Each structure stands twice: as C-alpha cells, then as structure tokens.
Amino acid sequence: MAGAGPPPQELSKSMESARWERIQELFHAAVDLPAGEQRGFVSSRCAGDESLMADVMALFSEDRHDSSPLDRGVAEAAYDVADGSVAPPPRQLGPYRIVGRLGQGGMGVVYLAERTDLGSKVAIKILSDSWLSPARRERFAAEQRTLARLDHPAIARLYDAGALDDGTPYFVMEYVEGVPLTDHCRDRTAPLEERLRLFRSLCEAVQFAHRHAIIHRDIKPSNVMVKSDGSVRLLDFGIAKHLEHLDAPAAQTRTGLRLMTPAYAAPEQLTGDRVGIYTDVYSLGVVLYELLAGRLPFDRSARSPAEAVLAAAREPTRPSAAAASSPAGAAASRSAWTDLDVLVLTAMHADPQRRYGSVDALIRDIDHYLGGEPLDARPDGVGYRLRKFATRHRRAVVAAAATILLIVGLIVFFTARLAIARDAAVAEAARTQRIRQFMERMLTGGDEDVGPGKDLRVITLLDIGAKEARAMDADPDVQADLFQTLGSLYQSLGEYDTADSLLRAALQRDMALYGEKSGTTIDTTVMLGLLRDVKARYAEAEQLFRRALALGRENLPEGDPRTVRAEIALGRVLINRDRCTEAIPLLQEALGLQTSHGAAEQDIAITRGMLAVAHYFLGHYAAAEDLNRRVLEVDRRLAGPKHPSVADDLFNLGAIEQIWGHYAAAEKLHREAIAIEEAFYGRDNPEVASGLTHLGRALLSQDRLAEAGPVLERALAIFERAYGKVHPRVASTVGELGHLARKQGKLDEAEALYRRQGDIYRAVFRDKHYLHGIVLVNLGSVWLERQDPRTAEHLFRDAVALYRAALPADHPLIAVAEIRLGDALARQKRFAEAEGHSLAGLAVMAAAAPDVHWVADARANLVAIYEALARPDRAAAFRHQIAAAAMRAAP
C-alpha cells in the first residue's frame, strides 16, 4: 500500500502509541530530504517492515495532497514525473547569476549566485516542490517576513525576494562563507575564553530576535557560522515562530510542521508542547555543552521520540566530566568547571521554569563568569561567595586574614548576602512568569485564543504595555525593567515625554531596589541622560552622565561597558554644548578601553563616529572624513547597507562634502541616507527630518529653490511635532528657511526667521555659544542685501569676536565671518581695512575647503579691493586664481 493510506488523524486513532511515535520519528527524519530520496531513506530504516514503510509514506502523500499538481506549470510537472528530482533554476534571477549549488533540504534548494552589476556573492534559496502544499508555501513566505525584520550584525541578512515565472518563491540572502561554530573551535583548539565569547555573540543574535518577538526553534552549530574574521552569523530563521502568532487549530495537529533538529531540541519540542524563548535557551545550552565538552549531552540518533523525551528529562553528564574524556573538550581548572557546569545545566534544565528566564539572563552569567563574579544561577553557599571574593580581591583578603575580627565580619557579611541572593533566586522564577504574562496581556489582551488585530499600531501596543507596567507595583524589579524597555521604545518612536516619564520611573525603582552604585542603576541613569540630550536639556544630561561615570569608575571593574557607555554619552553632550576639545580626550579614552577589553566592533565604530563629529565641529574636516569612512565600512559590513547607522555615516560624509563645496555629491549622499531612514523609521521620524534639512541645504547651495522649499517645510513640521517650537534641530531648519527667503529676495521674512533661530539658541545655550555667531552672520547678510553695510559690519564684527572666543583660530566659521566683514568694509570704501579681513578669511578657508563658494567670494572681493587701491598686479593674481579654480571645476 505504498503511496496510499489513511490520513494522520485516523492513523493516530487506530495505532498504538509506540508505533505512532516510530512513524513520526521516521517522517521527521526524512521530511527535509529531497522528494526523490525519501523512499530510499525510509526503506533503509524500516528493516523490511512493509506496513511501517507504507504508513510513513502515507504521511508524505497526505502532506502533498494539500494542493493540486495543476497549481504548477506543465513543464515542471513533466520534469518531476520523468526525473523525480528538483528542476534546475534559471541561470539568471533579476540581477543575480546562478554559479553553483550550495545545498538542499526539505524546504528548498540553496544556490550560490553573483550579482552581475556589483560582483558580490549571495545565497539564493528557491522553494523546491513548492506546489506540494500551501503549508510549505506559507512557511517559505514566513521565512521572508521573518528575515526582513531581523537587522543585526550576527544574523544573516535578507537582501531580496521574488518569484520565478511559475510562481515558485525565492529569496536572496547574505552569503556566509565560514565554518560551523563547533568545527571552528575544534579545528583551532580554541581556548575556553574564545569559545565563550563566540557563544556570547550567538546569544546576542538570539536575544535580538527575541526582542523582536521571534524565536528560532532550530539553533544548532550548523546554523551558526564563524567567518574568517572571527565574526559569528546565525542562519536559517525559516522555522522561526513569531511569539504573537497563534497557529490555527488544524495546523497545530499537523506533524509536518514540527520542525527541529532532535539532538538540540528542547523537551517541549519533542513532546509537541508549547514553545517559547525558553526553547531557544535550551538549544543554546546544548550548543554550549558541545562547545565545552566536545560532544553532545545526549545520543538521540537511535532513539524513538519517547526515549528521546525520557533522556531529555534526565540531567546529562556534567560538561566537566564529558570534557575529560573528549579530545575536543575545553581545558579549564576545577573551580572554573564548577561554574561552567552550573551555567550549562541551568540553560539545559528539562523544566522551562528552572532554566534561565531569558537569553539576557544567560548572557549575564557568561559575563559574570568571564569577570570572575558569582553566577546568578549558582546555589549560593558561603564558601562559594568567599572563593569568588578572594579571586577578585586577593590582596585585600590576604591583608584581612591578619585579624580574626575581620574574618568574622566577612562571614556575617556574606551570610547576609546569602539570604538576599536566595531570595533573589526564588523571585527569579516568579519574575520570568510575570514578564511572560505581561507580554501575553499586551499582545492578546489576556486571551490566548486571540491575537492583536492586523492593523494594530506599534504605539497602541506600547500604550497597552505602559498601562500594564504601571499596574505592577507588587513586582518592582520586573516593573523597573519594563519601564526602561518601554521608555527606550517610546524614545525611538519620537514620543519623548512618555519616554521621559517611564525612564524616570525606572530610575526611581532601580535606586530603591539596587542602590545608586549598582550597574543597573548606572545604566538607567545613562539612558535617561541620553533622552535629556535628545530633548536639548544639555545641562541636565551632562549632570546625569557625570554622576553615572563617577559611580561606574568607583564601583565597576575597569573597562566595564556600562562605565564606557557613560563616558561616551558625556562626550556626546559636551559636543552638543560646544565643548569639543573636552569631548575628544574622553572619547579617545573610551575608544582605548573598548579596544583593550574586546568590545564589539560595532560599538567601537559608534565611538569612532562620535570622535568624527567632534573633529567636524572643530573644523578638522579631513580627520572627520577619514574617521567617518572607516565607520561606514564597518557599519555596512556588520549591519548591512540599509541600517540606520549607515544612514548616519552617509549624512556625516554629506555634511563634509557640503562644507567642501561639493554640493551635488552632498545631495546624493543625503538622498541615499534619507531612503534608508524612511524605510526604517517611517516618513515622520525626527531622524528623517534631520536628513531632509541636510538635503535642503544642498539644494539651496545649488540654487534649486523650488525643490528646497517643500523639503525644508516638511522637516520643520516633523521637528516641531517631535520637539516643540524650541529645539536646536528646529533652529537649524529655521535658519535654512531663512536662507531660502533671502535667496528669494524676501528680506523681511528672512530676518524674522533668523531672529527666531537666535531666540531658540538663546533659550537652549549659553550666550557665548558659537551658534549665536551663525545667527549674527545670517542677519549681517540680510543687511548687506539691504545696502546697509555699516549695520552689517557691526554684526559681522560681533560674530568674529564670538567665534574667536569659542572656536580654534583656524576654524572655517571664523573665515566666513572675516570674508563677510571684508565685503562690508569694501562696500563702505574702507579698502585698507577690508584687505586684512578678506586675506585672513581666505587663508583659512582655502586651506580647509578650497572649492567652497566663500573662497571664490573672498577672491572676488580682493580683486575689487586691489583695483580700488591701485594695485593691479595683486588684482591680476587673484583673477588668475579665480580662473584656475573655474577650470578645475569644469566638467
């Protein structure tokens, strides 16, 4: 009866449990094989039991009957009937040329391809036998949607998606050339610390997916590739399940949808129970076990599903014992293995409630181990705490051993800590359950049988979450975490007032729970300070950052990421307060700590980008460009070409091109960055508005006034909705609108806009801030065009004085004010005075940005000045310079 049989529902009723489990086991083992290989595989495993083989093949037949062969093209159907294999793909898919086959599984075939226009390699996955069932089509479509949401340097990127002429879907992914994680560590005989740091990178990728409400469900070493540069990539989110997605009742019974790799599967996957983030935690535990012990914790290759479940319910051999008998095991001391055993077995606990409550918790304990600190997961004995304390504070303990009284005091101290830690361990399970309940209530309204409406907006979900979080006074630690997370999300959406309220509440809870000196409190303090910085409340932000930095330096280990974050944040606010010379040493120190303590490459790039901003504002454009290009290379490589960090880098490079007078190049960079920002944030986000202001400036410089106006008006509307009427970003856009009005000859309107710009800067900054000089120069330009050079002269002189007090002597802004002052004096026929100011401005500007229009303006002024002073040789020299510059600029 091969190829026929009753459907799975009838089989499950008529067959005994053990036989049904054996059928499921064979089905799952063969479902990912190509269709032409399934029968041979099943036959080899049935050992002559024709009835068993027929029943297994009946499941494949049932799986195929979900749709008609008529759904596919005639050519494809004929090919399959004649050959029984997967039809070859077209040689060209859009801009991609197929160059080879990488592999094949039950869902699809993966090909190596090359983008013909760029020459870059990609992996293309095409759904093989996509006609078989709607379920498989939906799984493939779900994989596209899932990957599109996951933008993380350690997760393989989705570049493109489409369909063949016959409707077969495909998508184009990042081609990851590397080796599986376990092979990498075995082949290199990697030391323990390297294995843990690679594993931590994997955890960060899974943690990122969980934060986007996605679970992987098939974490295994073959899905974790290590590239030649040592970076990790997590592959194959094709079986990921959205946490908010509730399967239809019919789908829940289909065996074909229970996708997993048994060796790494959690007990709840083997039994068909509900899965969650705790399922990925278990699989991560198995991967870590194999990394450390050199072998798997359980041998499930020859076991039935029931036997596999029983094995998973038992605690495996300790990794330390397994490593001792494995040549691929990691080398570690006995005390180190004590912690590692606890860490791994906690992640792999058969009871989900006894595992780490989240990947965050697992990462924390990895960091605790690497930092020589007590694990959260370890049952806290006094001896254990004392050993850890002695390891970290060896000299202090030796000195303390001189007196019995101090030893007694230590025992009392650690006994008290023991009671606190035990209470915390008991509370952790309740904490995990409470957070899970919070997520369910936020996403489903407390009813597991329903989900959020398809048109439910993110902000609506956050509002529900904020309301739920405020009602959790009985769980202050959970409430503090949720306040912090929700506050960050509101901030990313531009809802700054709500974000401020939540982050202040989180800081209050953290202070009460953990005290001012804890790392948690320090981190929340920095987050609140960053929000105050965004809202242009710079003095408050600086105060928060300085407090966090001082507490971190005093209470946390050197190079602790939380202290470094506080230092970088302080550098950022100093830049915004026009104190770049103070910011640069701080940022350089933070960069050094990150480099020496092995910080992530992308974190280092962020700090380097902040240094570039500081150099830009100091007029060090070449240095700023070099730093920004290095950051752009890292961001594109790690985050992908469509990440907001890439957009920030493009904006910064565009601003430098603008300063140098390369306006078309600046426009191109700004348009590319805006497209990235709009795709990521939506059209009405303040980050998009910032890009629009940059673009408007480039358009104005090219005298494309009709295009610049709508761009700048849209930017201003977005900024005012997000920040109100008084904010530096609002002032910047208002100033550009003033330039537009001045170029249009609307001088009264331009003056009003410039004065509004000045009012904003006075409300936000101290009186001597260099931005006030920009307003003075803008107003002076209005009076020049009103043919009142004397009034303009006074404004320009004030600007020069202010700039010289606030900026380095060679700053281009000083040069602009000097050139404008020379023009005002020349119009009053005070040529001798005008000469000095024009020459001073030209010398600085020609060195900093030789192609900018101010250089041409200064040379034209000097030609007129020297003609008036009857010095034709000097006038001729500057005419020659003008002509030479024009020839260089000609296409």
User: Measured on Cα atoms, how large is the radius of gyration?
Assistant: 33 Å
CATH architecture term of the largest domain: Orthogonal Bundle
Q: Given the C-alpha coordinates, what overall shape results?
A: elongated
Would you report the number of β strands?
A: 11
- Number of separate domains: 6
Describe the 3D structure:
With 891 residues, the protein is mainly α. The strands form three sheets. The protein has a six-stranded antiparallel β-sheet with strand order 1-2-3-4-6-5, with helices on one face. A three-stranded antiparallel β-sheet has the order 7-9-10. Strands 8-11 form a two-stranded antiparallel sheet. The radius of gyration is 33 Å and the shape is elongated. It contains 39 helices and eleven strands. The chain folds into six domains: 8-65; 84-175, Phosphorylase Kinase, domain 1 (2-Layer Sandwich), CATH 3.30.200.20; 180-368, Transferase(Phosphotransferase) domain 1 (Transferase(Phosphotransferase), domain 1), CATH 1.10.510.10; 536-624, Tetratricopeptide repeat domain (Serine Threonine Protein Phosphatase 5, Tetratricopeptide repeat, Alpha Horseshoe), CATH 1.25.40; 641-764, Tetratricopeptide repeat domain (Serine Threonine Protein Phosphatase 5, Tetratricopeptide repeat, Alpha Horseshoe), CATH 1.25.40.10; 777-889, Alpha Horseshoe (Serine Threonine Protein Phosphatase 5, Tetratricopeptide repeat). 66% of the residues lie in helices and 6% in strands.
